[in-house]
Amino acid sequence: MSLSTxxxxxxxxxxAVAVFGLLLAVPASGQDQLPTGSAMPGLTSSLTGSxxxxxxxxxxxxxxxxxxxxxxxxxxxxKLEKRLLGYVQRFSQRGIATxxxxxxxxxxxxxxSAAENAxxxxxxxxxxxxxxxxxxxxxxxxxxxxxxxxxDGNHTLVYxxxxxxxxxxxxxVENSFLExxxxxxxxxxxxxxxxxxxxxxxxxxxxx
Length: 208
Hints:
- This protein is of the alpha+beta class.
- It has one domain: Glutaredoxin, CATH 3.40.30.
- It has 6 helices and 9 strands; from the N terminus they run H-E-E-H-E-H-E-H-E-H-E-E-E-H-E.
- The strands form 2 sheets. It has a 7-stranded mixed beta sheet with strand order 2-1-5-4-3-7-8. Strands 6-9 form a two-stranded antiparallel sheet.
- The longest helix is centred in the middle third of the chain and has 17 residues.
- It is globular and about 45 Å long.
- The protein starts with 11 loop residues before the first helix and ends in a 6-residue tail after the last strand.
């Protein structure tokens, strides 16, 4: 199984960066995402979500859990939402839970409010929790959204990075990173999966 993330010069991923580069910076080379093999951070931390106060432990799936750092106002999330819904529908019945974490400052950005989170939760059929001060984002090493972290049933990180290799154009997808990694978790082969650095909008937590 190949999870190569090296795009050709004409790949939509590169074109997307060129078009939106002034607004949405590409991942910094020094981005320190949580290393593969790490335990899930903040598993029992109290979180406020679309269904009330909860924890990641409460929201985990029997076979695995996808933690997604998400922004309601980021256009890249909008471009992925349909694909993410399809993923949730396919894999939730196989024991994979998906949890969205909004680490952006809701007081500064109306689209990041609890009400907007609840709308996303309803559309996707997943839990959405707030991390307004960015503590979880820091623990995961997440600086962009959307960013995907797949943990197996033992809370061990198997994959982190992008949903697939074409954030702006579903029709140009060649490597479905998250889906391929999820199949590895489900088949229990223990095959090593290559992670990549998340592409998207900067996470903007509340200051202070």
